[in-house]
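Troubleshooting log. The previous structure file for this entry was overwritten by mistake, so regenerating from the original sequence record. Sequence copied from the archived sheet and checked twice against the printout by T.R.
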Amino acid sequence: AEDWRPDRDAFPAAAIGRKYEGWAGERWLDIRRIEALEPVLTKRFELCRDKGFDAAEPDNLDGFQARTGFALTRADQVRFNLWIAEQAHALGLGIGIKNVPDLLPELSASFDFALLEDCFAQGWCGKFAQFRASGKAVFAVEYTDNDIKMEAFCAQMKALGFAGLLKNRSLDRFEKRCPD
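Regenerated output below.
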């Protein structure tokens, strides 16, 4: 739940957890309460569809590994993430998986593309090689604050068949793309 979104108050108070460390105004949600979250999340997906988007890429699909304020399990996370994919597909949207390489065995069949952040800097890009080998697009974004060496980054992206991009973490207009 992000305090700047117009639908912030539509989330039930009991489903709002701890602050998301490092991200002002954001709080974790209790993803075990799908029925309580469904109206808000469905409206968000419908908004994407109605604006003509082809797909959605939900963030923070790894709450089971974080201090959320809830006793979330891996099974809770998988159930929620699969539900998210089903909702997007039901509205004719593609759905992207962001990061969470540890959940690929359970999720890869249900997600259409991947967006990876900091995988090169953290050394886990290769975990998405099979996802790419299945014909799905993988977009790897690295950030300038990691002092990425573009030549090495782009060489790995090319070898893996991923699209590589360097951005400022503020997501301003700056970008540097790896050549095809």
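The CA atoms of residues 30 and 180 lie 41 Å apart. Archived copy saved in two places this time.
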